[in-house]
Amino acid sequence: MNVFQRFLRCAAGLLAALAAGLAIAQPYPVFVLNSLDATVSVIDPATWTETKRIPTGKEPHHLYLTPDEKSLIIANALGDSLLFLDPKTAEVQRTVRDIVDPYQLRFSPDMKWLVTAGNRLHHVDIYRWDGKDLALAKRIPTGKTPSHVWIDSKSTTAWVTMQDSDELVAIDIATQAIKWRTKTGPMPADVFGTRDDRTLLVGLTGGDSVEVFDVSGPQPRAVRRIKTGEGAHAFRSLGDGRHLLVSNRVANTISRIDLQTLAVVATYTAPGGPDCMDVTADGKFILVASRWAKKLSVIDMASNKVVQQVKVGKSPHGVWTLQHAPRN
Question: Which H or E element spans position 5?
Answer without folding.
Answer: helix 3-25
